[in-house]
Amino acid sequence: MSLLKLKSGTDIRGTAVGESVELTDDAVRRIACAFVSYICEKNGCGKEDITLAVGHDSRISAHRIKAALLSVFAAEGVKVYDCGLASTPAMFMTTVTMGVTASVQITASHHPYDKNGLKFFTKEGGFEGDDIKAVLERAEMLSDVKTAEADAEKTDFMSRYAEILKDKIIAEANDGLKPLEGFKIVVDAGNGAGGFFERLLKELGADTKGSQFLEPDGMFPNHIPNPEDKTAMEFISRAVIENNADLGIIFDTDVDRAACVASDGKEINRNALIALSSVIALENNEGGTVVTDSVTSSGLREFINGHLGGVHYRYKRGYKNVINKAIELNEKGINCPLAIETSGHAALRENYFLDDGAYLMVKIIILAARLRKEGRSIDSLLTPLKMPFAEKEVRYIIEEEDFRAYGEKVISDFEEYCVQFPLITPADDNREGFRVNFNKWCGDGWLLVRLSVHDPVIPVNMESDSDDGIESIEMFWNGFIKNYDKLRKK
Q: Rounded distance, CA 7 to CA 139, Å?
């Protein structure tokens, strides 16, 4: 197998458990060797000048993969810190607070237990897709990689990272060393790396009774650790209600994504989480821009632009896409304090534009603490957010070798098809695929057709503000798509 097949956007990812293992020890060793040479080249230095930090989430293959990495790093003569169980955002922070040259996180995010992968960071941020490709191309050319007995220095960086978050809450909640006394907060770590957050809250005075799945277990026996998963959200909502909690917090496996639940068990996720994050980001950033992915709702745009007085900038799917666009806008002099995806990836400018679920939850908890003094709760801030009556996503697998060209043609054809219908108009912020708005007498909503970032898939998202609008929009779409025989509904 070509190692280039392990490229997944800005990550390396593959099967790590079972009969058809892709992320083998040999593959990991070659990638480790290639990574060292790539870092040396980027920094214009020798191996003796490099320091690395390595961490992992709770996956069952993590220790095997870490052993393969460390054996190569030892042979290459670089200084290595073994951070053990860690969150992905914490591993980036090692480049800031420990001053390491680069860091590696072993994780496959929310994917099943048999998957695993690698994320790379320098102080400039996570590797881009081109960096990943370059490392894998170098690894492809290697055949005989030297190894040695690992001599990494064990480091409890998560305790240090937790202290940074604790200090943030104490400073900004401005209510003593136990600012969360009287708060009931339930944490669901999904048996991933997020269990530390419950301990952090308890140390600040919060009542965390009812918190669940805090112990790391790489088989994920309770639910998929994914804030986008319906079952996972049902678990945290139920825990909030059963424990009469003020707030519920749920993380994905490596804690770069999160969502929360209000005291009534209602999810603050997807568009609602973006809205709440925008409230936080636009405070002291009047007229600021919020970059999101393309599938966000019309109600969210009204909330950001109208209610908050900000600017909603829809961009492409992919957390690195929204983050990079936000950085680009700031470099152009446009005040952009937040980049966030509906998946829960949220990156604040004040935090290095790092997508950090724990940091976002810290900011939400600080806001909740401030509101409590006024007798208010965070969900009261979302009252002006208009939610759609109905929404739907349909996905099509493209059964064509050159799937990208075929998918692009489908989208182009749909754009031409819509021209003949006067009650259907293109969105004024089409930056990915093609989004059209349906008049209130004809669907009363919108439809977006786009290509998946990595896969041979066409996702179609639709939303309506009327009780029969989705049916009308879907009927219109079906009238167009029926002529494409290389598409199979997933």
A: 12
Do 226 and 291 share a domain, yes or no? no
Domain that holds residue 283: 270-355
441-475 per-residue burial string, b: 16 or more CB within 10 A, e: under 16: ebbbbbbbbbbbbeebbbbbbbbbbbeebbebbbe
Q: Do 52 and 164 fall into the same domain?
A: no
pLDDT digits (tens, 9 = 90+) for 335-355: 999 999 999 999 999 999 999
Cβ(152)–Cβ(80) below 8 Å? yes
Predicted confidence band of residue 326 (pLDDT cuts 50, 70, 90): very high
* pTM: predicted TM-score of the whole model, two decimal places: 0.95
Backbone angles phi, psi at 69, to 5 degrees: -60, -50
Q: Are 381 and 423 in the same domain? A: no
Task: Say if residue 263 is in the same domain as residue 275.
Answer: no
Same domain as 122, residue 77: yes
Q: Report how far residue 300's alpha carbon sits from residue 270's, in angstroms, rounded to the nearest whole number.
A: 10
pLDDT tens profile 418-441: 999 999 999 999 999 999 999 999
Q: Are residues 284 and 298 in the same domain?
A: yes
